[in-house]
């Protein structure tokens, strides 16, 4: 503990608030809230006994801390969430975007609602059901619904359907009642939607009867393939029925969370009960930098329900944490109705919590080797790279640049970013080369870096961040021009180049390259980021080239200019869509008359002998 921290610990108030742990560089490492700032912050710097390895590592990096006093714990909770979202500290629990689970959405305000699968809940007045995962998929549920109920799947504007519209194939095969043709009233259609909602809320009887009747009817007509299809749907329904938690009411919805830790790794297991049925569950390996499991679980719940995915009135947990009443009140206010967070002692609810805990422990036992492998590829590789390059600090933010062109046309460059050894896709940026004539990768690299350095003070989340290490794809030539770019921009960063053929690393002012073992995690990290920069540049180049060629092709058609091309793509989205459009459909595009529409159609459909 340094003198700065020791003095600040003496001045801590015994009040609620938020504390912000910072590194020597001033980077925010961790943000937490506390009922008593004095008690909670001192816990981090006290005896190492009972602290996890990850907490001890994080504490070793803390150079100082700040705090903000709040009027009460709810204010501290809201402020903590806002600060975490803004700064994204590396040691806080951050749920990844790809963990947005599928839900089924029904917008009751639509004239003839569709059933949709979505991965983000919004407060738009629609009804949401789910989440669906591991064992019962949203796709299976959707197929079940459409096999029983003849609902629309199209994107037609039902408030103003096209004139003389004819029903699509789904109507002819008995999958849609064709509300687009006035074949059914809204009242009749909404009665069917009501049956769908009952099913999604746990009532299986109606849908089971409908599908059985269809199966029998198909069999009697000797439509055996169709009968088999309905039989398979009944199997899916049976799987769902088997997940009924017999001791729970059929209208019971709840989320269950359990935490398990071995002092190094921490896993949280989730189970979801809807309509008295166990929809499924998931497990997540998380960063656990709180003092104890209770605090970690509490932080996880705040993060998990930070979006609008709060659909239940009961949340069960296996650890009873200090602020359980606080989080109940917070979530109740967020949902607009009473939400109970509890740790059950006995009964079926305790059995569900124990089931979640057993899943967490099982996953924890299996994830150790995966965690070690991930660490070696990311933070371990970053640490190794710091050593082999003799850097003062670990290269936590690495930027890599690559050039792509064909014979000097459609010249582009890419900037990809790895943070803590992992891809940071939101930080990627791309450039069109503006000043370089012909195929000159050296000059293109210099232009790219000069332009990048000119944005160091921007508010852009990526351009405004300073790299710990810059990697350029190529050898001595690319490195030379990259150094010129830094000199002209009056900046200095650690920089290397990586030559692809022999995987040689060139450093500034060193005549001989650095050659690492093929098994080196540091080299593998550099290869991954170089390959990612190459992929990103080529993809951008191909997209530009494709657009240019498409535009050139369309400009050959009489009556088609730049504005017409924009209108065509706005309507048909792709060149294939334009090619497949009829004369009548083309003529419906604003600004395109029948003659031009005919020219476009004939350009793609006239056969030349």
Mind explaining what this structure looks like?
The protein has 609 residues and is an alpha+beta fold. Helices cover 44% and strands 17% of the residues. The protein is built from 20 helices and 18 strands. It has helices at residues 3-10, 37-44, 53-61, 73-87, 138-148, 169-172, 186-200, 205-220, 224-242, 293-304, 324-335, 347-377, 379-388, 441-453, 476-489, 521-554, 562-572, 575-580, 583-587, 594-605, and strands at residues 17-22, 28-34, 64-69, 103-106, 115-118, 127-129, 254-261, 266-274, 277-286, 314-317, 340-342, 397-406, 409-419, 422-423, 429-432, 469-473, 495-499, 504-506. The strands form 4 sheets. Strands 12, 13, 14, 15, 16, 17 and 18 form a 7-stranded mixed sheet that branches. The longest helix has 34 residues, at 521-554. It is flat. The termini are far apart. The mean pLDDT is 85.
Number of DSSP strands? Answer: 18
Determine the N-to-C terminus distance: 85 Å
Radius of gyration: 30 Å
Task: Find the structural class using helix and strand composition.
Answer: alpha+beta
| Strand proportion | 15-25%
Major sheet: 7 strands, mixed
* Fraction of residues in helix: 40-55%
Task: Identify low-pLDDT runs.
Answer: none
Number of helices: 20
Shape category: flat
The mean pLDDT is 85
